[in-house]
Hints:
Elements: E1 2-7, H1 10-20, E2 27-28, E3 35-42, H2 48-59, E4 65-75, E5 85-91, H3 93-106, E6 121-126, H4 130-136, E7 138-147, E8 149-154, E9 159-165
Antiparallel strand pairs: 1-3, 1-8, 2-6, 4-5, 4-7, 5-6, 8-9
Amino acid sequence: MYSLNVPVPGQVGALAVEIARQLPSARARTRGEHTLGVKRLGSDAGQYSRIEAQAREALAGQPAFEARIDEIDIFEDPPVGTAPVVYLAVDSPGLRQLHQRLVDIFGSVSEGIEGESYTPHVTIARGGSLDAAKRVAGAVDPIEWTVSKLQFWDAKHNQSVSTVSLPA
């Protein structure tokens, strides 16, 4: 799957790792694996260059935007993958607007994850005990940052393919 993501600041990754230590039976994301999905773009490897070019065109003029994390939350029954999912909830009107613009252009690639179902978040861990997940959920000291770069992400190889600076 190819997607457009927000690279998260080191402070966010460090918080996620710290919280994951409290979830020993869950599969935690490791340092460097924490990203914030903007929009899934598709899975056809043969079309990647075309998809990226179309996304870059859609991003033309996109300004930088603010993001804030101040809560740990849970997806008890996620639409895909192992439950529960413990995550850092992201508040960002600019991110939501960008996501919706990209859904309007590319359509919804993943049912239950995009469009009206979109919940901006940084995954901390999947699986394990729901009780443990509920114990870590709640408010955290706020982390705020300006999103000034986006990355095209290749999930198959778990790596960034390229980046685009904002404003684009």
